């Protein structure tokens, strides 16, 4: 059975045809030579890491061995290693051995805070965590992305602040430039793309304020 006119029109609209150096997709024509990103010209700006390549490599080795393989109760040992590499770590801080910190010299954690198992502190920019705060297991604090409008795909960064007595629950993604306010709670598996005000409870992807936390 031959296709009717509507079927022929639909096929023409959805079929992508390669012809020479152009791509035809419906009514859109784009040169095949156009680039969205060219990773051969990606560059890390001088001083971006905050330490020399040797120090970065040394930290990676320490994190994979002396830090990551240390028994769970050795919290003081891991605090000492983080301080040795420039992190500002308060008293009584608990960091699990499976947590990962990209550049500890860009991280500050206040007194008595907890960093759970498999937390990722992607600290290409500053990460500041206040006192008595919790970042639960498998959460990802991401201070960097890339500029998709630039073919060189450069880094775009923004600091993250988790204020005093806040709780980032399990498997939460926190985007660059976000502040989670004092006493705020972010529900599990949420995606935080904007600031969470103090004492508010935010949940969802993207996270939205759903209520207020009572103080005692």
Cα Rg? 23 Å
Q: How many beta-strand segments?
A: 22
What is the number of independent domains?
1
CATH architecture: 3 Solenoid
CATH superfamily: Hexapeptide repeat proteins
Describe the strand arrangement of the main beta sheet, using strand numbers: 5-8-11-16-19-21-22
Strand content range: 25-35%
Q: What distance lies between the first and last C-alpha atoms, to the nearest angstrom? A: 75 Å
The overall pLDDT, averaged over residues, is 90
Q: Which series of helices and strands comes N to C?
A: HEEEHHEEEEEEEEEEEEEEEEEEE
The tally of helices reads 3
Helix content: 10-25%
Overall SS class? alpha/beta
Q: What would you call the shape?
A: flat
CATH level 1 name: Mainly Beta
Low-confidence blocks of residues:
8-21
Reported for the largest beta sheet, the result is: 7 strands, mixed
Summarize this entry quickly:
By secondary structure, the protein is an alpha/beta fold. Helix content is 16%, strand content 30%. The model is unreliable at 8-21 (pLDDT under 50).
Which descriptors would you attach to this protein?
22 strands, 3 helices, 216 residues, UDP N-Acetylglucosamine Acyltransferase, domain 1, flat, 16% helix, single chain, alpha/beta, five-stranded parallel β-sheet
């Amino acid at each position: 059975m031959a296709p009717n006119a509507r079927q022929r029109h639909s096929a023409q609209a959805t079929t992508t045809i390669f012809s020479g150096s152009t791509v035809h997709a419906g009514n859109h024509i784009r040169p095949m030579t156009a680039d969205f990103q060219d990773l051969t010209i990606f560059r890390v700006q001088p001083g971006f890491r905050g330490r020399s390549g040797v120090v970065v490599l040394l930290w990676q080795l320490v994190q994979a061995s002396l830090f990551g393989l240390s028994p769970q109760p050795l919290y003081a040992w891991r605090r000492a290693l983080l301080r040795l590499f420039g992190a500002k770590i308060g008293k009584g801080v608990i960091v699990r051995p499976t947590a990962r910190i990209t550049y500890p010299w860009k991280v500050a954690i206040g007194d008595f805070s907890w960093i759970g198992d498999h937390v990722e502190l992607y600290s290409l920019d500053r990460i500041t965590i206040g006192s008595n705060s919790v970042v639960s297991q498998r959460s990802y604090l991401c201070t960097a992305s890339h500029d998709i409008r630039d073919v060189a795909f450069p880094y775009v960064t923004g600091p993250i602040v988790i204020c005093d007595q806040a709780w980032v629950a399990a498997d939460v993604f926190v985007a660059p430039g976000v502040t989670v306010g004092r006493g705020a709670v972010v529900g599990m598996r949420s995606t935080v793309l904007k600031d969470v005000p103090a004492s508010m409870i935010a949940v969802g992807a993207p996270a939205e304020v759903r209520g207020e936390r009572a103080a005692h």
